[in-house]
UniProtKB/TrEMBL annotation:
The lineage of its organism: Bacteria, Bacillati, Bacillota, Bacilli, Bacillales. It comes from the Bacteria. CDD domains: Thr-synth_2 (cd01560). Transmembrane segments: none annotated. SUPFAM superfamilies: Tryptophan synthase beta subunit-like PLP-dependent enzymes. Keywords: Lyase, Pyridoxal phosphate. This is Threonine synthase. Belongs to the threonine synthase family.
Length: 462
């Protein structure tokens, strides 16, 4: 399988080179050159596979023989053996029409583990095979950092440095990152905001000499391996539900920030999984809701919400969707992105908007409505939703029609966002793994926000 850029100016690459490139060199995003098409027969055959077996089949379609099957199987098995639930991503029924797909049983209790456990093992594999050094540099507003660190801690050939805004991530998120005692992990706690951290990273990656000299690699959600890993649970959940209810019309409701998770669902659908509707749930940062409803993609004012991992104005994976919306026309995408840069917005014509609305339904959840959803599901079903999951469930309640089944993706364990849940007087007991973090020593270096100071730290560490 070859990978190409949404802007069309990169020679087709193999899977491993695509992973290592991260952002495409022409500024676009990498996508598979062709999307594998699954027959009804294949879907039937996959119906009873375990999660790792299914992951192996799906990765094989996108990697082909670039990684020998036995080695790929080992990577997949190692990646999902760290999950606490035997099903990896179990599906829980709340009522006839609503299911929750629990994606938070990995090491850091957030769905990002599903992709980053695999990417961590993949990077270690590439380092071993090609005898190369991999230095990961990333910024986080909370979940990605913890998950990326867990993905590579203690792995040979890899070092990881994560920047987070000093005292601006949740307590549990901070502890998850900084209690890791491993010589290949460096936590820099930056005196500034998440945007400052992201700007620093962007500028360091733009310094090509520095980037090459120190073998810098990215782990952010534009990495195509992350998307591919996330397609698996759409298939898995679909099979779980249709096993009992073969004719079900199945929707997925996805709490969205960078458009990564929902793009994975879109890809699964394009591969042939008969998803009925993809419901795009946002919080008050609703650029994507407005795009689906009005055909205008334009950032609004930043709003702080109870679901901070979705507090995003510019969705970094959105360009991948534009590529398919415009019939895989890289020139059209290049023009749209140039328009976005120049005018700060993209406006699509009526026929394209119709196509968007055939692909997605959207709903933006207000802050109070998010908390109301947590309260009402707790009261009615005894099920505690985290605030991100609550956005997906609230959107499902608004959009799904009678007789349809909606699977709401649960992207984090509620313990990670206890600060918000307490506002409704709900007390939860932390899982023992999270409780244990409070007694561990922390390892982090507090730094100012200048690029030079960060560079000094990196040079010492690498
Ligand atoms: C990252 C994240 C999201 C958003 O996922 P995207 O792929 O950026 O759309 C939603 N919920 C949680 C808990 C997250 O960590």
């Amino acid at each position: 399988m070859e990978y190409i850029s949404t802007r069309g100016k990169v020679e087709p690459l193999g899977f491993i080179d695509a992973i290592l490139m991260g952002l495409a060199n022409d500024g676009g995003l990498l996508v598979p050159k062709t999307i594998p098409q699954l027959s009804a027969d294949t879907l039937q055959k996959w119906q009873k596979l375990s999660y790792p077996e299914l992951a192996l089949e799906i990765f094989t379609l996108f990697i082909e023989n670039e990684i020998p099957r036995a080695e790929l199987k080992q990577l997949v098995d190692d990646s999902y053996a760290t999950f606490r639930d035997e099903a990896v991503t179990p599906v829980k029924r709340l009522n006839d029409g609503t299911y929750v797909l629990e994606l938070f049983h990995g090491p850091t209790f957030a769905f990002k583990d599903i992709a980053l456990q695999f990417l961590g093992n993949l990077y270690a594999y590439v380092s071993r095979k090609t005898n190369s050094i991999i230095h990961i540099l990333g910024a986080t507003s909370g979940d990605t950092g913890a998950s990326a660190i867990e993905g590579v801690r203690g792995k040979e050939g890899i070092r990881i440095c994560i920047l987070h805004p000093h005292q601006k991530v949740s307590r549990v998120q901070e502890l998850q990152m900084t209690t890791v005692d491993s010589e290949n992990v460096l936590n820099l706690s930056v005196d500034g905001t998440f945007d400052d951290c992201q700007r620093i990273i962007k500028e360091l990656f733009a310094d090509v000499e520095f980037k090459h000299r120190y073998h810098l690699r990215a782990i952010n959600s534009i990495n195509i391996a992350r998307i591919l890993a996330q397609t698996v649970y759409y298939f898995y959940a679909y099979f779980q539900i249709t096993a009992n209810d073969p004719g079900a019309k199945i929707n997925f409701s996805v709490p969205t920030g960078n458009f990564g998770d929902i793009f994975a669902g879109y890809l699964a659908q394009k591969m042939g999984l008969p998803i009925h509707k993809l419901i795009l749930a946002t919080n008050e940062n609703n650029i994507l809701e407005r795009f689906v409803k009005e055909g205008v993609y334009q950032p609004g004012a930043f709003r702080g919400t109870y679901s901070p991992s979705m507090d995003i104005q510019v969705a970094s994976n959105f360009e991948r969707y534009l590529f398919y919306l415009y019939g895989e026309d890289a020139e059209a995408v290049t023009a749209l992105m140039a328009q976005f840069k120049a005018e700060g917005r993209i406006v699509i014509p009526a026929d394209k908007l119709q196509a968007v609305q055939a692909d997605f339904a959207a709903y933006g959840v207000q802050n109070e409505e998010c908390l109301d959803t947590i309260s009402s599901y707790y009261k009615e079903y005894g099920y505690l939703l985290d605030p991100h999951t609550a956005c997906g469930v609230a959107a499902a309640d608004r959009i799904a029609a009678d007789g349809e089944v909606t699977v709401a993706l649960s992207t984090a364990h509620p313990a990670k966002f206890d600060e918000s849940i307490r506002l409704r007087g709900i007390e939860q007991t932390y899982p023992q793994q999270i409780q244990a973090l409070f007694d561990k020593p922390q390892f982090q270096t507090v730094v100012g926000g200048s690029n030079d100071e960060i560079k000094d730290q990196l040079v010492k560490f690498f």
